[in-house]
Amino acid sequence: MERERTVMTSYGDLFDDVIVEMLSRLPVKSLLRFRCVSKSWSSLVKDPSFIYKHIKRDDNMRLLIYCTYKNPYDTDPFNDLITYFSIFPDKTLTDLHIQDLERTMKGHITGPYDGIFLLSEDNTHINLWNVSMDEYRVVPGYNVRLPSDTRAHSSDYGLGVDPVTNDFKLVLVLTLWDENKQWTHCEFSPAAVYNFTTNCWRDVGGFPMGYHYRFEGADDIYLNGFCYWVVRRPDYYKEILTFSMSDEVFRVIEGPNIPQFLNYYESAMRPWMLGIYDDCLSILYSEEIAHSFDLWMMKGESWTKQFTFGPFIEIYQPLTFWRKGEFLLQSSDKRLVLYDSKYEEMMDLGITGLWFSVNILKESLITVREEDT
Asked: What are phi and psi of 120, to 5 degrees?
């Protein structure tokens, strides 16, 4: 009994700190088994602070790849592309064999968001799947009232925890299509929040836009109670859209002091790759034909160019953050490589294609199973 009380004391206790640190290093399956050790361990595994401590660990990641390449045996120019969705099972990337995920997932796949995949039938019907915990939830459809002569054209998401209520939330932002203008509706974007505890959507009114923002890519970044997306205006000027999980308010903030290119091609060829580095919101950026790339970090309310990596012999486009000091890049001849900035080494991952995107699958304790009533 005394042992139980000791573990349940505040994290300020040295013994508790050691226990929490040890448990945070374990894989999800082990932590799920250890829930039965004590009530305090069971509560710890459900605690959002511990969940994100566990998610942030560098050894808690696997690499996902969406790759499209030309089928050398197909002569039909309209049907000669092949796309596959795969994962590197080896977390260390020492073993480079990949595992096909196409057969595992059905429907349109978005994510993962801190280990949670969104499997959608359309823009307003979503299912949640935590791969690590093998949990699945059918989310009720979002019944949205749309302006006349419009329909849902695309959807963007964010997932994180409300630091005030400790409840996990899913954010949905819809881009509408104007049937009369045959173009995206630029006056309003409906938005809603799905609450994991109540299992229902709540309309947060969307946000009237001074500009018609388009989301750059499908992925958000969650950090310290906020979701972040890179968005661009009609003139291709890029900014950062934020959403507070507690206040449920959208806000647009300026990005770093990076040259803005106000035409589609030049803007698209210089994407902002949003991520987290040293617990700060960060952006990887390179010029189209540059032999180096920059890492910008947001500290407080301002952006700082923290590092410049290179120059390299070849031209590389940064794709995403890997472990600390490591980045995934695409070479000019369409190869996927891992760059270790500490040792200044490039590692070819054996993936080549016309284009590909990469994402990080983190083992996650965010439960999507509905609580028994």
From this structure: -115, 140
Instruction: Tell me how far CA of residue 220 lies from CA of 24, 35, 215, in angstroms.
Output: 24, 31, 10
Determine the Cα–Cα distance for residues 125 and 134; give it in Å rounded to an integer: 20
- 17 and 127 in one domain? no
Backbone angles phi, psi at 143, to 5 degrees: -90, 100
Query: 176 - beta bridge partners?
Result: 152
On whether both 171 and 245 belong to a single domain, the answer is yes
- Taking residue 227's Cβ as centre, other Cβ atoms within 10 Å add up to 24
Instruction: Report yes or no on 82 lying in a domain.
Output: yes
Cα–Cα dist 208/220, whole Å: 20
The angle, 0 to 180 degrees and rounded to 10, between the axes of the packed helices 14-24 and 39-46 is: 60
Q: Which amino acid is present at 112?
A: P
* Long-range pairs, 305-314, Cβ under 8 A, ≥24: 305/256, 305/257, 306/277, 306/282, 307/341, 309/339, 309/341, 312/346
Nearest to 132 by CA among 80, 73, 54: 54
For residue 244, being part of any structural domain is answered with yes
- For 75-130, the pLDDT digits (tens) are 665 566 777 788 888 888 888 888 887 655 555 778 888 999 988 777 667 889 99
Question: pLDDT tens, 183-236?
Answer: 666 667 788 999 999 999 999 876 655 566 777 766 689 999 999 999 888 788
**C-alpha dihedral, 148 to 153 to 154 to 160, nearest 10°:** 10
What is the Cα–Cα distance from 173 to 207, expressed in whole angstroms?
9
Nearest to 234 by CA among 214, 252, 253, 216: 214
- pTM for this prediction: 0.86
